[in-house]
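Provenance and format

Records in this collection were gathered into a single text stream. Each protein contributes a sequence line and a token line. The two records reproduced below are adjacent in the stream.
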Amino acid sequence: MARYTGPVCKLCRREGLKLFLKGSRCLNKDKCSFEDRKNPPGPPPKKKGKISEYSTQLREKQKVKRIYGVLEKQFRDYFEKANHQEGITGENLLQLLERRLDNTLYRMGFASSRAQSRNFIGHGHVLVNDHKVDIASYQVKVGDKISFKEKLSKTDLMDQNIKLAQSLNRHPAWVTPDYTKFTGEIASLPAREHVDMPIKEQVIVELYSK
């Protein structure tokens, strides 16, 4: 599947928000170029006049797409699926995005970013219920057990990711990682309060409902 391969720091600047697309680098103010106000990434911002309702809705959609690393067609498919489910469409949409396998590894703390998660999955290092899954968009279910092939679990990179996750101690309640065994389990479906980024999902619903 196509994937954005350009510089990601300029995406943060475009949205005016740290999207944490570079993992641990984003947590270091000395290394995060978004924090460098003297020489921020990307082109200089254009002067803004009155912002239209459509522009606000579009920017919100673009922000969420960039946070989760999905492109337009896939994002639209998620919305259509969310719209046909019972419940609130916006919350259904966020739940589908949270349940992606790449996001799940990131939430558990085994990867420092969703991009790194996709790398692990694409190289066949990730197991779901002891079966290899190499599709980043795979939807996890309650009770699913996540593990890794020994080749990855014994690397310094995994140790660094786990130490970072332990220091931050911020994995949501819907996942239960076991850092000593390099495993994790899906305890429940993600809820709206588990999304830790400032997202206005109703604005996206209004955009697609026109």
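Adjacent record:
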Amino acid sequence: MTTAQQPDQLLGFATERGELLVARIRLALTSLLLLIAVCNLFLQIDSLERLTGLAATLAAVGVSLVAFIAAKRDVGRAWLGMATSCLDVTLVSATLAAYLAIDQPHTAVNSRVVFETYFLAIGATGLRYDPRICIVAGLLACAQYLAISWIADTYWTLNETDLYAPFIYGAFSWSSQVSRLILMFTASVLAAVVVARTRALLQTSTKDPLTGLFNRGYFRECIAAEVSRARRSGSPLSLAMIDVDHFKSFNDRHGHAAGDQG
């Protein structure tokens, strides 16, 4: 393995741990939301809106469980981060689209709870250590929400007073929707910048500034990641250590600069 490949490998280890952390958080949050949805259902059992929320939450818990198992087993590790990030924002969009399906357009476009979940999904992309994922997931969220807003405005007369007054979720306006889209895209760019900065710091912290060689911190990260992977897969793990004989005499004879270069 060349030194050019090693930073990518270390980022891969960090991404793997981040993906597993996101999978655990996603499963815990969806399970909590399911509990809330069930409680709300008992409070108003005849509410179609609450039934829709319960169905969407059940689907989210099922998907979260599958994603958790995949992350734990390293299934499709190369593409899993991108796929689950896109899945996260799509789950939010699917919930909003479900409200359109039950003729609740104002809930879809003016939700004060479901919409904010987009920012949780976008924020979670920062744990994947790949700025491309932040941008792709953010653009996908913007495109999906723009489509939901356009459909709602096209097929419903959203500001019709006789139909929707007193506008519990607020009247519809494109200025508000555009503001939401700008906020989502800005969050995606910020997440990408943070990830890029974190990648640079991670690579810098694992290299010796004098020789450019990887230090003990890199070794510990690699060993921890490989041990964790071996435990999950049940595969054997071997570690070979090589001692360079008489290296001190080489430094004494040719100088430390030659030793560092070697």
